Known about the structure:
By secondary structure, the chain is α/β, with parallel strands linked by helices. Helices cover about 30% and strands about 20% of the residues.
Amino acid sequence: MHYDLIVIGMGLSGLMAAKTAAEAGKRVLIIGKGIGTLSVFSNTIDVLGHLPEATGMSEGLSRWIDAHPEHPYTKIGRERIEEALSSFLSLFPSPYSFHAVGEGNCQVPTGAGTLRPTRYIPVTMTAGASLKNGDPLIIGFNGFKDFYPGYMADHFQCRSIVLSLPELSHQEITATALARWMERESFREKIGKEIKKQLKGETRVGFPAVLGMKGPFQVMKAFEDILGVKVFEIPILPPSIPGMRIFHRFKEWLIDKGVTFQLGHSVSEAVLRERRCEEIRVHNPPVVTSYTADQYILATGRFIGGGLVADQERISEPLFLLPVDQPGSRQEWFGKSFFGNPSHGIHSSGIRTDSSLRSIDENGNPLLQNVWIAGSILSGHHSLEEGSREGISISTGYAAARNAIK
């Protein structure tokens, strides 16, 4: 089966690439074994976490690009980054929208009791973006072990309560199960009445980020109507329900636009001839299925997604066998301190590209004419330390697709 573009990888960068190509009217296949790190990390959209105080995002990006010549942002350019972010935001119209608070980053509370800088937040987290000590009431649930309300309350010098669910008193509760229950009106009314009885002048109530999978805004508003105060979500340990909402929204939109999804099995082989990818193959024993395309985008992530693998000596890219920028020896992969500065050398590993995001050799020449690279597998960034993970995924997915479909 032949496509205009095949996207390999179903994380945020792959989804953005597929969206960009589909909007241009291209026939697209997106293929992956899972949904990347969306279900693990993503609650908000980080673009550049270390902005100087009172610095707007556009100015901060410009300064960052000037200071980091090998960074993915530099290869894309500020204007295209902003185009990409706008494209992402357009996928989430009201009521469940993502938006910025101010010109730079805002500070959102975390389940660890800290404040974390981020650029775009879902509407369900807005009321927590200007959190003050002593103000909120934090809600937890017996049996739900991915959120510790008392720990967070201690840090913010506020109160917390833990609600019991009698019908589930002896069961461990998961985030996905709790999110489904939140969508039941009877469940909301029951716990909402219990919370209202325990309010003591608080003007905001914070829940773990499980306010429904399909209609989180409606769940939030229903609680606000019952309680008479603002309600907000707090990012928690994986799995990330907000990240899963992002994936499901992309999937719904892409399928509606005619994009073909192949979820559950990763690409096992790429057939290369004369500096071009001719086809890819997916092994689903005992069947091997081949797909061809004019252009390909590799968006398989680093180690979590299997885009990079390591043995005792080297880090490699297993599908196209592209060269990987990495420390000179295994001894340089890790520093002596877990939170050391600079960060561990292994975090800088990735594929070096030209300005169009094609992999290059040591002389700067493209290795494969019809393969573009997107997402965290790119070299030249430390997205966790920079607070740029989603920004890099969104902007490089968008830019790679734009370059591929020219």
